Amino acid sequence: MRSEVKIVFGPGREVELVVDANEVLSFDAARAWLDEQFLKNGCEPIRGAGKVLIADKILGVAAAVGPAAFDDAAFALDYARAASGALSKALLRVDIPSRTLSY
User: Fold this and answer.
1) Alpha carbon distance 7, 79 (integer Å)
2) Residue 51 reports pLDDT greater than 80
């Protein structure tokens, strides 16, 4: 089985990532990677109360690094492994312009 992560940056600007199920990070490892990237890339909480959900981190990291970061195969693989592991979903769609995450 495999996991697929599709990141939409705008019309015609999409990144599709595929990762084998055995490469998906555990929930704790995925959360740690997303936390690190969220801070490293200067992401801001979406919600006024300051609470940051896992989905917010997945969206925030992709938005902060932009499509060029996904040209780096190692980063792209780590992102897909973390996003899939954090949500335990085999198919994710990260839509940056609409700030939505669906699975």
Assistant:
1) 11
2) no
Dist CA 46 CA 96 (whole Å): 13
Pick the closest to residue 79 from 58, 99, 55, 51 (CA basis): 58
pTM of the complete model: 0.92
Among candidates 57, 22, 17, 52, which has minimal Cα distance to 37? Answer: 57
Give the H or E element holding residue 95. Answer: strand 91-95
Does residue 57 surpass a pLDDT of 90? Answer: yes
**What stretches of the chain show up as alpha helix (H) in DSSP?**
27-40, 54-69, 73-87
Q: Residues 90, 5: contact at Cβ < 8 Å?
A: no
**In 3-state terms, what secondary structure has residue 42?**
coil
User: Of all residues in the chain, what percent carry a pLDDT higher than 70?
Assistant: 97
**What is the side-by-side order of every strand in the sheet holding 100-102?**
13-20, 2-10, 91-95, 100-102
Asked if pLDDT for residue 33 goes beyond 80, the answer is yes
